[in-house]
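Extended Data, panel c. Modelled sequence:
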Amino acid sequence: MEKLIAKDLLSIQAVFFRPEEPFTWASGIKSPVYTDNRLTLTAPEVRTHVEEGLAELIRKNYPDVEVLMGTSTAGIAHAAIVGHIMNLPMGYVRSGSKDHGRQNQIEGKLLPGQKVVVVEDLISTGGSCIEVVNVLREAGAHVLGIVSIFTYGMQKGLDRLAAADVKNVSLTNFDVIAQVAADEGYIRPEDVKRLITFRNNPSDESWIGEQKV
């Protein structure tokens, strides 16, 4: 599953490695990878693998789930499709409460005590999905955990999830995608070590200077 999804994401450039010409994040950090899992929605075969894979992960890891809640905005479509596959109700959590109407932050019916799985497309430092979990917990939901398409496995994200007592399971991860990218010829085999150096500490830019000899 991990390698299949990795190949899928690479094939549609949902995950795109460019270690020789790093991207610059809003924070100013140089990154060898660009990620946009929204592209899975416009690739029907890949989308099918992703949504059926998410449903399989939920059945295996959260068998008692009663409601799916997508993160806004990237997780909404995935929560809807997986909810359809699993015949489960779904909703989503806004980044903030509406300033009109009923001023909802949680959209969709959610009863106190219901067992919820949060559907996310990508986890890096974990901040945004933990905020969603906290909103749901404050509303009385019993959050079983998170399911996501891809996780970087950054230590900051792992620490945040652990501190918040939140479980996450992903279809694939940074290490697997980096190795598959090398195996499939998207990057050079020697680039894998550079990518892992970035993953381990995004603020450490020493990998940028590690050029091919």
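The chain has a mean pLDDT of 92. This feature is highlighted in the accompanying rendering.
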